[in-house]
Write a structure and sequence with these properties.
By secondary structure, this protein is of the alpha+beta class. It is 18% helix and 34% strand. The chain has a six-stranded antiparallel beta sheet with strand order 2-3-4-5-1-6. The longest helix has 14 residues. The radius of gyration is 17 Å and the shape is globular.
């Protein structure tokens, strides 16, 4: 069953529109992705998930530090992957028993959007993808380092 999904802009509440918050010292963005209805066999295979993560990293030009870490849980368990990036991190966790994949990408620099919905539908058979983009940071009034106070 296919569903109409909101675009990325509709999934986030701009920080300046949140109650009692002024200007923001941004430290980047975090994408939280939940993909349901995925093929449970693919969710149990590290190579399928590693190919997904490698595509994200390559296509939006992120930089991996060291080697990715992967853990395969005993059958019928899923897979957990973690990439340390110079921009922050990318992680994924699969739950074949629930036909669910969860992904977090935190990036301290802006970059081109990635078509999570299309890629997860094509690669894993996802029938529902929920994408949330969060602006990370603190209100400027709390950011004393921005005013030159390094003590």
């Amino acid at each position: 069953m296919s569903q109409t999904f909101p675009d990325e802009q509709q999934c986030m509440v701009p920080y300046h529109e949140q109650p009692s918050v002024g200007a923001l010292v941004s430290t980047g963005f975090e994408w939280i992705v939940d993909a349901a209805g995925c093929d449970p066999l693919k969710l149990a295979q590290q190579p399928a998930l590693q190919a997904l993560c490698d595509a994200v990293i390559s296509e939006i030009e992120l930089n991996v530090i060291g080697s990715p870490q992967w853990h395969q849980f005993p059958s019928p368990g899923g897979v957990t992957g973690l990439y340390l990036l110079s921009e922050s991190h990318l992680s994924c966790h699969s739950f074949p028993e629930h036909r669910l994949l969860t992904v977090n990408l935190y990036c301290c620099r802006d970059h081109a959007c990635w078509d999570w919905r299309r890629e997860l539908e094509c690669r894993l058979g996802a029938t529902e993808v929920v994408l949330r983009k969060i602006i990370r940071g603190i209100p400027a009034v709390n950011a004393s380092i921005t005013s030159g106070d390094l003590t």
